[in-house]
Amino acid sequence: MMPLITAAVSAAVFVLGFLFAIVCILMMLLILAQKPRGGGLSGAFGGGGGNAQSAFGSKTGEMLTWVTVAFFVGFILLAIALKWTIDGANTPATQVVTPASQPASTTPSDDDQSPSLRKATAPPDEG
Fold it and tell me: Of 72, 63, 74, which Cα lies nearest the Cα of 34?
């Protein structure tokens, strides 16, 4: 059962990582296609000069802004999903749970110590 879970987590990390890389590349291209103050790609296609008869219309700059925002939201969500998936893969599958009736001891008892150690930790004789 454990190898099946590990394979599923590995596949999820691979798919999320691949989508994350694609979103990063597309977001970089979108940001580079824009110029400051809305004159980027809309100006290149005729929308920045007030010409409403361009191939993409006069609202190309606004559309690119909203697409960039959508890619940024996808970037954040994929980053969170990758973090949770990778952290879930690193947690131990089995954890040692001590029963409530037997609390865990932080100091070894006298039975657990060897005779030489017991002698070294025993109080000195006052006699």
Answer: 63
